[in-house]
Amino acid sequence: MDKNIPRTGKQARPKTAFKGKRYRCATCHKRSPKAVKTPAPWYCPSCLSLEEAERGQDHY
User: Fold this and answer.
1) Is 38 exposed, middle or buried (0-12, 13-18, 19+ CB in 10 A)?
2) What is the rounded distance in angstroms from the CA atom of residue 16 to the CA atom of residue 58?
3) Across-strand partners of 24?
4) What is the pTM of this model?
């Protein structure tokens, strides 16, 4: 997990899930049907289309 192992006995935990274990959308937290292979953050198709629409409106 981590190279820096504290001597207190506390275990270091990663801040984000590692590749292949990201199941939830970053916006609506909807669960993915299978493990996501891309780096975090991951967006479900509906949230991704909404984000693309917002990006299109910002540019005049």
Assistant:
1) exposed
2) 30
3) 31
4) 0.54
Question: Which residue's structure tokens are 């693309």?
Answer: 52
Which CB contacts under 8 angstroms, 24+ apart, belong to 34-43? 40/16
To which residue do tokens 């207190």 refer? 8
Burial of 11 (0-12, 13-18, 19+ CB in 10 A): exposed
pLDDT in tens, 16-56: 666 667 788 889 989 988 888 877 788 899 998 988 888 87
Reported in sequence order, the residue ranges of the chain that DSSP labels E, i.e. its strands, are 22-24, 31-36
The pair of three-digit structure tokens given for residue 59, joined into one six-digit string? 């540019």
